[in-house]
Design brief:
The complex is a heterodimer of chains A (about 450) and B (about 650). By secondary structure, chain A is an alpha/beta fold. Chain A has a domain at about 40-185 and about 280-430: 3-Layer(aba) Sandwich (Alkaline Phosphatase, subunit A). Chain A has helices at about 30-35, 105-110, 130-140, 170, 190-195, 205-215, 215-230, 235-260, 285-300, 330, 340-365, 420-430; strands at about 45-50, 85-90, 150, 160-165, 165, 175-180, 180, 305-310, 320, 325, 365, 370, 375-380, 395-400, 410-420. Chain A has a 7-stranded mixed sheet with strand order 3-8-1-13-14-2-15, with helices on both faces. In chain A, a hairpin with a 2-residue loop joins strand 6 (about 175-180) and strand 7. The longest helix of chain A is centred in the C-terminal third of the chain and has 27 residues, at about 340-365. Chain B has about 650 residues and is mainly α. Chain B folds into 3 domains: about 30-120, no CATH class; about 135-285, no CATH class; about 350-400 and about 410-575, no CATH class. Chain B is about 50% helix and about 5% strand. In chain B, the strands form 5 sheets. Chain B has a two-stranded antiparallel sheet with strand order 1-2. A two-stranded antiparallel sheet of chain B has the order 3-10. In chain B, a hairpin with a 5-residue loop joins strand 8 (about 555) and strand 9. In chain B, helix 2 packs across helix 5 (about 105-125) and helix 26 packs antiparallel against helix 27 (about 620-625). Chain B starts with about 25 loop residues before the first helix and ends in a 20-residue tail after the last strand. The chains are: A alpha/beta (about 450), B mainly alpha (about 650). Chains A and B meet through helix 4, strand 7, helix 6, helix 7 and helix 8 of A and strand 1, helix 7, helix 10, helix 11 and helix 12 of B.
Amino acid sequence: MNPKHPLARRTFLRGLGTSMALPMLDAMLPTRALAGNAKPAPVRMAYLFVPNGMHMPDWTPEREGPHFELPKILKTMEPIKRDLTVLTGLTNDKGRGNGDGPGDHARSAGVFLTGVQPLKSEGAEIRAGVSVDQVAAQGVGHETRFASLELGTEKGRQSGKCDSGYACSYSNNISWRDATTPMTKETNPRLVFERLFGNQNDAEQSESAVRRRRFQNSILDFVLEDAKRIHRKVGGKDRVKLDEYLTAVREIELRLERAEQDAHQRPEYLESFDLPDGIPSSYEEHIRLMGDMMVLAFQTDMTRIATFMLANEGSNKSYRFIGVNEGHHSLSHHGGDSEKLRKISDINEFHARQVSYILQRLKSIPEGDGSLLDNCMVVYGAGISDGNRHNNENLPILLAGKAGGAIKPGRHLRYHFETPMSNLYLSMLDQMGVHQARFGDSTGPITRLFT
Amino acid sequence: MNHSPSRIEITPATAFSKPLRHWKLIPLTLLLQTTLLVDSQESGVRFIQSYCVSCHQPPRPKGKLDFSTVTSEKQIVSRALDWDQYVARVRQGEMPPDDEDVDQPSHDERQTFVRWIESTLREAACENGIRPGPAITRRLNRSEYSASVRHLLDIHFDAGEALPDDGAGGEGFDNAAETLFLSPIHAEKYLEASQTAVEYGFADTRSNRRFLTAQPSDTLSPQAAADDILESFLPRAFRRPVSPEEHQAYREVFDSVYHKEPSFALALKTTLSAVLVSPKFLFIIEEPNPHPHPIPVSPHELATRLAYFLWGAPPDDELQQVATEGRLHESETLRRQMLRMLEDPHARKVRSFAQNFIEQWVGTRVLGREFRPDPSIKGYDSELEGGMKYEPVFFFHEILQENRSLLDLIQADYTYVNRRLARHYGIQGTFREQPKRVEITDQPHRGGLLGMAAILAISSHPHRTSPVLRGKWILDTLLGDPPPPPPPDVPGLEAEATGRAPTSLRERLEVHRQHPTCANCHDRIDPLGFSLENYDVLGRWRTTDQGHPIDPQASLPDGTSFSGPEALKRLLLDRKEPFLKHLTKKMLGYALSRGLTHEDYCAVDEIVTELGHNGFRSHALLWGVINSVPFRYKAGSNPETGVTLNTAETIRHD
């Protein structure tokens, strides 16, 4: 910064006073994605995660290819069966002990989107790998207002250790910005909405506030400049911590610039969202609202990349409302008990029903010649298959959407034993236009999925 | 300027060059054994030979670890960090692995081996005196951030409310440097809050007095008024003196805005908002120590460490003043400041310390959040939840402020209850919604942490009590000796009991313990929990459970029998060392906002000794921590890589 002219390169933002929150100060929406005709609609990528494994006999379709029946858990997806590809046989090898001993739950979440063995630590040093959504965000995130969106329903235990020597950071996050920084997820639907679109009711309209907002970029510039001076003084790991902040500030700067470029009218359908103030007491409602937020963010092209943990790994939530009183995690150690297996299957089905709702929402939104879902790649699954055995092979994974036509869905594909999940991610990154030679423990692109 | 620490006038009780050897470190679990401990190199090496080398030897050692050549303590000490990891695996029962062709050590053998490695590593680490960790760089956590904004502007506004919760690391606290991550969402919220907070400050006359120290007038130019305000605002925001260049940089922000739009208020608001999003405000940043040897932290760094430790808030004006005068490193001054900070005028901040520490240490923060009793458990409501949640907080606050014995945590004749909790406990008297102190000499079941409803609840399942979870809570939380996690694929309680007539929980657990692999650990865990069975999920006293009479009898593997909570508390008081040691570790880890290392354990040992000489008073613990080498010094680090210099000469106090 030239300290004499810190404002020189800024034009004033047209602060319309729709919000007291900076990043959405003009609460306007781009219409690129909605315009449709000029460019093909962009491809979106989402990862929906559930904890504690799956009752596999009720998940895996019997037949391969296009003529498969949806088993019990997936039955609820019948209306969108032709948009699904069930992927059987994928493995997260780095979620296994590999000499690190117990802690499969924490590990299975830490590896889920990274393909990297998480470092066993209660907090002395936290390290996994950069996750696939963040690789995509770093590649194409600059094209949208938000590089990516991280959603969840549970804040999770905040104590140091969650699972056999692993810090809670591993169980509570699937998205990792870099090897040492998990992306904090948002669990309150209203806060997500306000973050994306501003806050209509609580607008700070005072004239001074509006005037002041025009100088926000000068503050950001100054912070970056100021931080550089300290940056020179600290070394090693500490520099990384400051960098985290600077990266974040820079990202907000960019977002403001994008907001300036995208000054369009706020679509009316946003007004129809009547969001509760806090987190809804109904878990089902909570999941659906968070799903709505994701759909909305994709629809308005605020971001093209999202992760959503329907619950944290190892979650011991009870599902009383579907007649399951035991905690999910306790139950997942079923020891082969048929009653417990049935209850696990019921929980799995409940989650699948919510995912089905989200996918149908995506499908209900027209985009180009088809639907929003057609331009998506939504991965849904868990980091372990059988909750009792904690195994990391043959994971329950499905992919919804056509990636803009690159996928011909409506199939059940069975992969060769031990095919890395990372192969799927590597190929998905390709579809996003983020070409990588390798990702995690990938051995090559995934076969047969993309045309 | 001479940085040699020996020139500094201090005599910390905790800095000696010899480790303590006379302290008998005998955790409860060890006392339960019948065999004698043989802490020798010989038996340790024999353990390695018997249980490790069959896999870990050439030509293809498992995990590329070859233990076949380990024959002496010296070899272990030379790779202390690695052995730290290895011994943790043995302690947790992860090694040797649970395979058919691998011999398993007995519980006693395992314990003896672990003790040997640990004491070897610690003695080596302590041999040259206590060494501090490196300079601290971390962001303020959510509550520290709120307190810091409040301090600066004197406003009733929770600036951190919209921030995401911080996860915990280190010794299990949310101020741990390593787990204070920063996502874009933080930066957004900081930015929003900086502007909202400044608006609040301007609109509030009381707040105005705090920071609006000048107004432009006929005789004072806007620029001069801004200078005046910044002169007091910046050092308070950055918790240290500010250089003329730094001041000038903020003045230029003011000027540039004023130049565009000549409004004093607008320009000042923008400038102050910029201060509130500066990393110098949002982060605690200590100057790295470029020397190869440890040096004292600077006076203002010490003031900052002290304030965030005892208050979770920045230094106040007096503390900063003492630091500026360069007197804070004088032991007497430092001690006086500590005592002042614990006094009544600062009760609100000390309570926040009490709350942050105790809730995270004993785990009651989850009450009403991750832990809610099942609806089948009657009588739970929000006033009860509040009473339960605040009982340990108010109780610990009194221990801290009134310099009470830390053993009160195990047994005390007073506690704090609100109206609802008093009824819950059957305590007579007049109470309100706010917790109030009450003498409970006539309540033998209450007093101390183990009689508190919140603790009894969070160590239960939502729908029933669990002697296993409560026993584990005692071993893990009070004694710092957590049992290893159960191996995967163990049958649950219900599965074990299948095929039998319905029995009491106790009978079912007894079955569980007949299983030899379970018994190894559950013989140590379950008896502790059984003695608390007279408390239900919400900590109410009961004599039957589902029609079965409660049997609080318990016997430890060494044959010691005891019955009920009072006997358990006596047992713990008889063997208080592991408890005091664990509490000291937690307190030091909290104060340093990081996980401890072997070097720090030397300091822990010495603080515990001092506690013994001071009637286990809380102030002796706080002073021991504050006066310790790790708290007052910082290690040298390589300016390029940031790597801590460990070859340094150590601190000697002549």
